[in-house]
Amino acid sequence: MKKLINKVEDVIKEQMQGMAAAHPELKVNLEPKYILRSDSASQSKVVIISGGGSGHEPMHTGFVGKGMLDGACPGEIFTSPTPDQMYECAKASHNGKGVLFLVKNYTGDVMNFEMAAEMLNDEGIKTQNILIDDDVAVKDSLYTAGRRGVGTTVIMEKIVGAAAEAGYDLEQCAALATKINSYGRSMGMALTSCIVPAAGKPNFDIDDDEIEIGVGIHGEPGRKRIAMITCDEITSILTNAILDDEAYTRKIKEWDFDSNDWKEIELISPPFKKGDKMIALVNGMGSTPVSELYGVYRKMNEICENKGITITRKLVGSYMTALDMQGCSITLVKVDDEILKLWDKPVHAPGLRWGI
Amino acid sequence: MKKLINKVEDVIKEQMQGMAAAHPELKVNLEPKYILRSDSASQSKVVIISGGGSGHEPMHTGFVGKGMLDGACPGEIFTSPTPDQMYECAKASHNGKGVLFLVKNYTGDVMNFEMAAEMLNDEGIKTQNILIDDDVAVKDSLYTAGRRGVGTTVIMEKIVGAAAEAGYDLEQCAALATKINSYGRSMGMALTSCIVPAAGKPNFDIDDDEIEIGVGIHGEPGRKRIAMITCDEITSILTNAILDDEAYTRKIKEWDFDSNDWKEIELISPPFKKGDKMIALVNGMGSTPVSELYGVYRKMNEICENKGITITRKLVGSYMTALDMQGCSITLVKVDDEILKLWDKPVHAPGLRWGI
């Protein structure tokens, strides 16, 4: 294993120290681990916090900053952060306007964020959890009941961050985030595996002429393992899987502030249709040159145009990675005027910046 | 070879088409190949153009945009663009205020940009060439007489782009660019090789436990091949090589508008010293996770602090790549008030954006 690391057990800590040195506008806490906007607690706004296993950078730590996340809790690599990280992060940043947790649908993340939300609500700090489950590749997977949470997370963090900045209250932020989750769909693929430092060997085996269609961001299996095909063929499979996905209905949990307990609600993601306008994310898995992602963008855009779907905003780059995996994912999030207006607001985080 | 490409011969063309689809504010020309700001020819400002072999994206095509480059000419992968690309790119974008070519020191690039500059000056379009030769690793190399041009290019393109936007004339832009070249130093290293699509196999051989210190951005050999060491050890070698580099004196060519011919001038890069303030670029070679680059930043910043050198601005990410090579490079550019003020100006290019 050749990586730019020192001792395996110090990897996350030292990378966070590097972020602290590079970005003095962030507050980096090591025990327990979280990264905050230095000014969160002195603001008067809903606090937006996310987190998850490390290894997906710049998500989430790189998205902490004005107009996006207030805080992020990094777990060990590909491992959920613990409830005390989320609890302490929220305690250190909240300012009386409530806390919104944005949670990708992985069993450990969901369980731990729920525990943290319960602890905070018990103390009278109003906290709501929003699930992201946008991966059309598989229904259930290695670490998930239901669809996995992937690229829509990046789009949601940007837009809900802008909403909180603009003065949305907790209920409004939660409603917006839930809408974005119901508007977003993603699918990914892998050309290669990735190496987790603590393991020192590829996370899964894949032959030199094979690819994994529908892969998860930890290398978990997707829809099918097939022989290598062209960029256009890969892009067509991913894009069509997203555009042809039917209505997806599931039960999600929401905190009910009246009964002080969880309640289940039904959430439906309506299928995309002709005339829809989209934010697109063409995402690299870590080791994919940005030039190749533009090759993917070319074909994805062509397919969308042919189906009467318009890409109005886009990100092309490695925003949600799986360490050094080669591959890509495509995310499309349907937009309306509210979403578009918030997308265009300024953002200043290490991993995403404009307007400031 | 597994890459997100179609036919090898269409790679550059299709990636440019993807950029055109994603960035309607750019004008993408395929015969000959160049990318322009759509509004360049209607501006009244010095036109800043760069170019070089493809495979280093986002450099240079991703740096075309308001506040940075007006145009970029991509060659085939790791191959210089041709004089007609540079000539046509300049013809399509110039607006009477002159053209500045920013040229990395590789034999083919230098020769072809000189030919293009001669053609343009012969037609009365005032054109100046600026060399970037900032790589302290080696004196001469596989493709270079003198030091290679690497990371200072990114910093220069941002700052000189801002200067042109602010109304600097051709002579002032050229003087600023030359100053930045004399203020910049870089060194890189590789953990792995990279695969050029047309070759289909690694560009050079390197063992599983070896690294190349001082590698070039095409994988050309550097200072030494050594056994794998830690991130801190690698970072120390690169940072100290930059900080301990002595005065570097060389002859560079400049167009003399009086005699209408080239003249040679002597350029000296004074050594860095205690009290200097820097813009730092911690750059990934293509397949290095941004999290690992923060590990590099941590140690680099510590070494600089211990030597009384302050990092005042920074970029951490993959800005000048070598396809899918794993590795990193460090660039430090000494700043003064003029450079810092221009660095902070807005920029809006696909690969670098803030303030707009």
List keywords for this structure.
homodimer, 356 residues, alpha/beta, Rossmann fold, Hypothetical Protein Tm841, Chain: A,domain 3, 2 domains, six-stranded mixed β-sheet, 16 strands, 28% strand, globular
What is the C-level CATH assignment of the largest domain in chain A?
A: Alpha Beta
Can you tell me the residue ranges of chain A where pLDDT is under 50 for at least 5 consecutive residues? none
Proportion of beta-strand residues of chain A:
25-35%
| N/C terminus separation of chain A | 39 Å
Counting structural domains of chain A, the number is 2
- Largest sheet of chain A, described in full? 6 strands, mixed
Commentary on this structure:
- The structure is a homodimer of 356-residue chains.
- Chain A is an alpha/beta fold and 356 residues long.
- The first copy, chain A, folds into two domains: 10-183 and 248-271 and 336-354, Dihydroxyacetone kinase, domain 1 (Rossmann fold, 3-Layer(aba) Sandwich), CATH 3.40.50.10440; 187-243 and 273-334, 2-Layer Sandwich (Hypothetical Protein Tm841, Chain: A,domain 3), CATH 3.30.1180.20.
- The first copy, chain A, has helices at 11-22, 83-93, 107-122, 152-165, 170-183, 231-243, 290-306, 337-343; strands at residues 26-30, 33-37, 47-54, 71-77, 99-104, 127-132, 184-190, 210-213, 224-227, 248-256, 261-269, 277-284, 310-317, 327-334, 347-349, 352-354.
- The first copy, chain A, has a six-stranded mixed beta sheet, sandwiched between helices. Chain A has a six-stranded mixed beta sheet with strand order 9-8-7-14-12-13.
- In chain A, helix 7 (290-306) links the parallel strand 12 (277-284) and strand 13 (310-317).
- In chain A, helix 2 packs across helix 3 (107-122) and helix 4 (152-165) packs across helix 8 (337-343).
- Chain A is globular, with a radius of gyration of 19 Å.
- Chains A and B meet through helix 1, helix 6 and helix 7 of A and helix 1, helix 6 and helix 7 of B.
